[in-house]
Design brief:
This protein has about 140 residues and is mainly α. It contains 3 helices and 3 strands; from the N terminus they run αββαβα. It is globular, with a radius of gyration of 21 Å. About 5% of the residues have low confidence.
Length: about 140
Amino acid sequence: MAWVYGEGVHDEPMDPFTGDPTDPTADLDDSGDDDAQLDPLTDVERQDVLEDLADLEIYQALLAPIGVRGLVIECEDCREPHYFDWDLLRGNLRHLLNSGRPRVHEPAYDPDPDHYVTWDYARGYADGVHDTLSEGTEDEPGSGS
């Protein structure tokens, strides 16, 4: 059997205690955990996450070249801003899509807020770029306007 590049690569970090009989979390029971009883994502929720992933690709393509490292999101639970680089946020959205559960989170260590923007800013920036590019095609002959 031939080795294939990238085969066996995981989006999620591997559990270092998998199969270890001395696993320190072995005694923890998920059945009493309220989060373990979450319903799977609805079709609407899945579509929202897929749209967020698509938007994220656009935002990164437009904003990363000008020095934006990711997005800042105001956490509803702790009322603190959380700074996510592009890949981490993409991974979190994929995890939510696959498992139906958000990842446990904590604020980034000493991020530079000047390198992060909000979803609303990113959306507005993308809309502005789209509108600017669209204006050039409206004035051309044969464009249907």
